[in-house]
Design goal:
This protein has 288 residues and is α/β, with parallel strands linked by helices. It has eleven helices and seven strands. It has one domain (16-130, 193-284): 2-enoyl-CoA Hydratase, Chain A, domain 1 (Alpha-Beta Complex). Helices cover 44% and strands 12% of the residues. Strands 1, 2, 3, 4, 5, 6 and 7 form a seven-stranded mixed sheet that branches.
């Protein structure tokens, strides 16, 4: 890296070198643990973000986002880290949406100083979702009795093997309301007066195409990374992709088994299969 930087500077000695804008791709479901495929978490993206913002001579940092959302906690952690690095290095952050920046994906997009998307990109879904299954009738059909013992009246709330309790649902909705309030506050903090829609429209979980998102002030323009940054920083702007550093076992990494022993492999794969189904469900909500 040092030698390539030196050769680059020597090449443009006596002249003005083209602008440098490192690019970080944030693609995938947002979750704390990677099992079967690439997921976004603070632990997985922080090193790439750090390298991009610290790149010598950078004029800005660009983020390519393609995410249907996921964990609100990881979304908040990543978003705040982006802002901390931007303020520390005094660099603007340009965000470009690919297929989708919805829910937690839009949370990440709001960490940018400006957001661009394709006219057909999916943007928004500013809400909170919880989903599960109820298996109590399945147990009855097979004559299975489940026994649960707790210390604490609400410890087993929302147990999928018991009938739904309205009090449990009310508690869950209070939690969702708290998280939703944080999401809305973040969007308002970052988008400010650029928001053009009514709160009842913007913050009820609906999502839109990039064209409609522009009308609502959720994004700042329609366009793609190369075109927009060339127009802003010059046709010779350098856009190096700051990628993830991979280990020596790509197959084990793909299967989520990097560093795992053989005894844990079966359990890891089983858990990964469930997560893969959930991940597929998140993408399919947006027709992807």
């Amino acid at each position: 890296m040092w030698l390539s930087d030196l050769f680059f500077r020597l090449r443009y000695l006596g002249g003005t070198p083209p602008a440098l804008v490192p690019v970080v791709r944030l693609s995938g479901v947002i979750a704390a643990r990677e099992i079967l495929g690439p997921l976004l978490s603070l632990a997985s993206v922080a090193p790439r973000l750090q390298r991009a913002f610290a790149l010598r001579g950078a004029r800005a940092v660009a983020l390519l986002i393609n995410s249907p959302g996921g964990s609100p906690v990881q979304s908040a952690l990543i978003g705040r880290r982006i802002r901390q690095l931007a303020e520390e290095h005094k660099l603007p952050v340009h965000v470009f949406v690919e297929d989708v920046a919805a829910s937690g994906g839009y949370w990440l997009a709001c960490a940018g100083d400006d957001i661009h998307a394709d006219a057909a990109s999916i943007v928004g879904s500013i809400g909170v979702l919880s989903a599960g299954f109820g298996f109590q009738r399945l147990l009855e059909r097979w004559g299975i009795e489940r026994r649960v013992y707790t210390a604490g009246a609400t410890k087993a709330q929302l147990d999928p093997f018991r009938d739904e309790n309205p009090d449990d649902v009310a508690r869950l909705r209070r939690l969702q309301d708290d998280i939703h309030a944080d999401f809305k506050a973040w969007v308002k903090e970052r988008r400010g007066t650029r928001l053009k829609g009514e709160e009842a429209t913007l913050f009820e979980g609906e999502f839109w195409t990039g064209k409609r998102a522009l009308e609502l002030g959720l994004i700042d323009g329609l366009g793609h990374l190369r075109d927009v940054l060339r127009a802003r920083y010059g046709k010779k702007v350098r856009l190096p992709l700051v990628g993830e550093r991979r280990g020596f076992h790509p197959l084990r990494r793909l299967l989520g088994l990097q560093g795992a022993n053989d005894a844990d492999a079966g359990r890891t794969l089983a858990a990964g299969a469930v997560m893969a189904i959930e991940e597929r469900a998140l993408w399919s909500r947006f027709g992807l």
